[in-house]
């Protein structure tokens, strides 16, 4: 709460300042890398967000700023910058964006205006579902030299105010990470930017941002810091801090206000920026829609549970990895979970002779088994993956190590249902399960793999049981989503 009050105080205090620090005209006249642009998808005003928009959804941004400038022999004037762009979710994990800047300088009755360099962007994010606790993404930004390159009367006075184009192809590669908590979010950016214009030095850019809860519909506060370090023939550094507030004024329409403070070689001292964000969907009925609508938990539609009769099941021991008795152990776990439900009866195959008890059955074999035992459904399949990795944790040589043992199992199974007379309903699915055992972090490890700190045999066995439990739960979840005779209790 104290952080929110501090940010609001900085924003309101900055907005109360009528002018701001003097713009450094010498720095403003230097060409800049156009790929260094504002976030068009998720993110703040400087720091990009790794979270994807979602397939078929779009975000439209309009950002504006105006700074006072002083040109010798002409006097005082203003430099206006308007940034207009759109991002679109082409796939659940892929966003495409386009930014079109509009620039206008007015000093001493002379005016210059035109477009800046267009910026194209593509962002690939993981995971693709929304919401999630953490995201990572890679973004490529291309600045196309399509900005205004002509000269006006204003440019005759010591080069005018600023160039509108870098006159070369600008490229940026950005890595982004988001961490989302109950009451706030953290954003981390890091990237490398290079221009085809030799006057623009290669730059390393990193930033960090804080934002109040993204689930809050009406008002969100944020603070962000970005630093740019150029290197090559010479070094140059600039940094900027921004505090802002963003609120929804209509459904899918947000108003944002920000106050920025520049440091080192940043051309602007202090400035106020404001803009609008529109969010909506282009699939189905096109409309504006609040971004927070995606964060509302919608209960899954559960199929109707109609236990009009008792369903008899035959579960054949799954094939594969017999040295671990994986198939038999998995079947026992499935039986244990089904036992409390009176509408389901799992037939004990050990009580019958001359029937297959393990392995993958063909549809004909499953139908014959169902006829002999009088069962309504047969479950058969094979375990395709049973991987035990005792050294799956993070390891940076001579820095730190996180000992971890990971067990991964995967099952491909088939359910043949004989509920309707003379008709067989077949359902095939592949699911996986995981189990992990972690130990305390080790600092300054001296060897690559230290078996004395890895999981013991008892802990590895516990991880295998956890993986099989997870796999059994996922098998029953997928079956409950398909068959009405499965209890809806197994749905998530």
Radius of gyration: 31 Å
Structure class: mainly beta
User: Which outline best applies?
Assistant: elongated
- How much helix is in the residues? 10-25%
Low-confidence stretches: 1-20
**C-alpha termini separation:** 34 Å
Largest sheet: 12 strands, antiparallel, barrel
**Sheet with the most strands: spatial strand order:** 1-2-3-5-6-7-8-9-10-11-12-13
User: How large is the count of helical segments?
Assistant: 5
Total number of beta strands: 22
Order of helices and strands: HHEEEEEEEEEEEEEEEHEHEEEEEEH
Query: Could you tell me the strand content as a percent range?
Result: 35-45%
Q: Give the averaged pLDDT, no decimals.
A: 85
Quaternary organisation of the protein chains: single chain
Short description:
This protein has five helices and 22 strands. The protein is mainly β and 492 residues long. A hairpin with a 7-residue loop joins strand 5 and strand 6.
Describe this structure in words.
This protein has 492 residues and is mainly β. It contains 5 helices and 22 strands. The strands form 3 sheets. A 12-stranded antiparallel beta barrel has the order 1-2-3-5-6-7-8-9-10-11-12-13. A 5-stranded mixed sheet has the order 16-15-17-20-21, with helices on both faces. A hairpin with a 7-residue loop joins strand 8 (184-195) and strand 9. The model is unreliable at 1-20 (pLDDT under 50).
């Amino acid at each position: 709460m104290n952080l929110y009050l501090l940010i609001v105080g900085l924003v309101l205090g900055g907005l109360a300042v009528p002018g701001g620090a003097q713009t450094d005209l010498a720095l403003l006249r230097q060409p800049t890398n156009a790929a260094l642009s504002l976030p068009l998808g998720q993110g703040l005003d400087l720091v990009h967000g790794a979270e994807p928009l979602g397939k078929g959804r779009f975000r439209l941004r309009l950002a504006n700023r105006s700074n006072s400038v002083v040109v010798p022999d002409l006097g005082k004037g203003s430099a206006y910058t308007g940034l207009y762009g759109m991002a679109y979710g082409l796939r659940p994990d892929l966003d495409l964006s386009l930014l079109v800047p509009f620039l206008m300088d007015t000093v001493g009755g002379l005016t210059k205006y035109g477009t800046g360099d267009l910026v194209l962007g593509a962002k690939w994010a993981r995971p693709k579902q929304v919401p999630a606790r953490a995201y990572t993404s890679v973004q490529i930004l291309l600045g196309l030299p399509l900005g205004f390159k002509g000269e006006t009367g204003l440019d005759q006075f010591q080069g005018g105010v600023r160039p509108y184009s870098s006159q070369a192809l600008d490229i940026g590669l950005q890595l982004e990470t988001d961490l989302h908590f109950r009451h706030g979010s953290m954003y981390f950016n890091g990237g490398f930017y290079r221009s085809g214009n030799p006057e623009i030095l290669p730059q390393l850019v990193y930033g960090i941002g804080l934002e109040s809860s993204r689930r809050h519909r009406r008002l969100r506060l944020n603070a962000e810091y970005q630093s740019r370090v150029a290197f090559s023939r010479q070094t140059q550094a600039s940094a900027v801090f921004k505090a802002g507030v963003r609120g929804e004024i209509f459904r899918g329409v947000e108003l944002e206000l920000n106050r920025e403070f520049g440091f080192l070689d940043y051309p602007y001292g202090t400035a106020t920026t404001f803009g609008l964000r529109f969010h909506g969907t282009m699939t189905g009925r096109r409309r504006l829609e609040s971004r927070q609508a995606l964060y509302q938990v919608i209960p899954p539609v559960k199929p109707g549970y109609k236990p009009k009769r008792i369903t008899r099941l035959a579960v054949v021991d799954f094939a594969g990895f017999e040295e671990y008795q994986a198939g038999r152990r998995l079947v026992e776990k499935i039986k244990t979970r089904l036992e409390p439900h009176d509408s389901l009866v799992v037939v004990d195959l050990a009580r019958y002779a001359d029937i297959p008890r393990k392995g993958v059955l063909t549809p004909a074999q499953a139908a014959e088994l169902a006829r002999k035992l009088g069962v309504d459904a047969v479950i058969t399949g094979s375990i395709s993956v049973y991987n035990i990795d005792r050294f799956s944790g993070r390891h940076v040589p001579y820095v730190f190590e996180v000992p971890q043992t990971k067990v991964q199992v995967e099952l491909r199974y088939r359910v043949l249902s004989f509920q309707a007379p003379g008709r067989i309903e077949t359902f095939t699915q592949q699911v996986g399960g995981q189990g992990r055992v972690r130990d305390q972090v080790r600092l300054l490890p001296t060897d690559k793999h230290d078996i004395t700190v890895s999981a013991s045999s008892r802990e590895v066995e516990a991880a295998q049981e956890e993986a099989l439990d997870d796999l059994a739960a996922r098998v029953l979840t997928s079956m409950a989503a398909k068959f009405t005779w499965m209890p809806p209790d197994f749905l998530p």
